[in-house]
């Protein structure tokens, strides 16, 4: 599943290809793709509109389309591809195809079909439940450390689970949660209520360092993730614990362990990470 650094790079790729362009025609090839509005209505609203900007909130990709906002979530396998004058049926698993006035054809390709589109009026982003509840992005310079501390310190859930909760901090998924906790020397099972402000500040600082580095390297290519066609991220070389179970720790002489916390594979070093 793409995480914040991957989504950030998807946004960059979309901007490079179609910012300022007009949608002149579009096809919805999988009607369940659109969650909150009728398919025909969707097509009518977006056709002949300009893409004024594309940005990210948490793992949502938001297209500013004049009067409206198209909100895309990639979920497990969603990808955006762009071709000059591409054919409609270029990709077998396209769920939507857009034709732009700059000669670009845009494809939302989704083999597992979990990806979603919502269309809302410009000022109605909060109507999308997932966005209304989102915490501040982990690498946002305006993140309020005290606010995050209050949220973390009132739960008895393990910190690994808390970091994946997008209402506490947005944009941290499984790979980066493991890497952030390793860099912070914190055991993934340590309970939220045992955290001090200092520890929370350490987590936030390391989240920024790791996510910004991952963004600059195009994200981590794990399983099938690609930023755009044939263009994979190469942050994976910097992973210290994620999917390195039974391998030696990069810091001490310990061995990386794998346990399951709230259903998610969790990788850590018992000697470096403390309760
Ligand atoms: Zn270690």
Short description, anyone?
It is built from seven helices and ten strands. It has helices at 4-18, 39-46, 129-132, 145-153, 159-164, 174-183, 197-216; strands at residues 23-28, 53-57, 60-65, 68-73, 79-84, 94-100, 104-109, 116-121, 256-261, 264-269.
Mean pLDDT over all positions: 92
Largest sheet: 4 strands, antiparallel
Give the name of the CATH architecture of the largest domain: Alpha-Beta Barrel
| The first-level CATH class name of the largest domain | Alpha Beta
Tally the helices: 7
Following the backbone from N to C, one meets helices and strands in this order, namely HEHEEEEEEEHHHHHEE
Spatial gap, N to C terminus: 28 Å
Q: Which percent band covers the strand fraction?
A: 15-25%
Shape: elongated
SSE inventory with pairings:
Layout: H1 4-18, E1 23-28, H2 39-46, E2 53-57, E3 60-65, E4 68-73, E5 79-84, E6 94-100, E7 104-109, E8 116-121, H3 129-132, H4 145-153, H5 159-164, H6 174-183, H7 197-216, E9 256-261, E10 264-269
Antiparallel strand pairs: 1-6, 2-3, 3-4, 4-8, 5-7, 6-7, 9-10
The protein binds zinc ion.
Zinc ion binds at residues 249, 251-252, 254, 269, 271-272.
Describe the structure.
- The protein is α+β, with helices and mostly antiparallel strands.
- It folds into 2 domains: 4-132, N-terminal domain of MutM-like DNA repair proteins, CATH 3.20.190.10; 145-269, Helicase, Ruva Protein, domain 3 (Orthogonal Bundle), CATH 1.10.8.
- The chain has helices at residues 4-18, 39-46, 129-132, 145-153, 159-164, 174-183, 197-216, and strands spanning 23-28, 53-57, 60-65, 68-73, 79-84, 94-100, 104-109, 116-121, 256-261, 264-269.
- Strand 6 (94-100) and strand 7 (104-109) form a beta hairpin.
- The radius of gyration is 20 Å and the shape is elongated.
- The protein starts with a helix and ends in a 6-residue tail after the last strand.
- Residues 249, 251-252, 254, 269, 271-272 line the site of zinc ion.
């Amino acid at each position: 599943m793409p995480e914040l650094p991957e989504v950030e790079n998807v946004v960059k790729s979309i901007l490079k290809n179609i910012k300022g362009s007009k949608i002149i025609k579009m096809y919805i090839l999988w009607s369940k793709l659109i969650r909150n509005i009728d398919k025909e209505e969707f097509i009518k609203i977006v056709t002949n509109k300009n893409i004024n900007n594309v940005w990210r909130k948490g793992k949502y990709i938001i297209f500013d389309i004049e009067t409206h906002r198209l909100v895309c979530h990639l979920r497990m396998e969603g990808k955006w591809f762009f071709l000059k004058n591409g054919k409609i049926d270029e990709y077998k698993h396209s769920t939507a195809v857009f034709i732009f006035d700059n000669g670009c054809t845009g494809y939302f390709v989704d083999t597992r079909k979990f990806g979603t589109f919502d269309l809302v009026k410009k000022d109605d982003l909060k109507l999308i439940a997932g966005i209304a509840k989102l915490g501040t992005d982990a690498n946002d310079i305006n993140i309020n450390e005290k606010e995050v501390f209050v949220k973390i310190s009132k739960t008895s859930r393990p910190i690994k689970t808390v970091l994946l909760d997008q209402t506490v901090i947005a944009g941290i998924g499984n790979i980066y949660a493991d890497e952030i906790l390793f860099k912070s020397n914190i055991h993934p099972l340590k309970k939220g209520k045992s955290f001090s402000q200092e520890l929370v500040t350490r987590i936030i600082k390391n989240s920024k360092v790791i996510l910004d580095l991952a963004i600059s390297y195009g994200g981590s290519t794990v399983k099938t993730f690609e930023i755009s066609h044939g263009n994979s991220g190469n942050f994976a070389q910097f992973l210290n614990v994620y999917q390195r179970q039974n391998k030696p720790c990069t810091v001490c002489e310990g061995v990386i362990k794998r346990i399951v916390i709230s259903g998610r594979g969790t990788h850590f070093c018992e000697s470096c990470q403390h309760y």
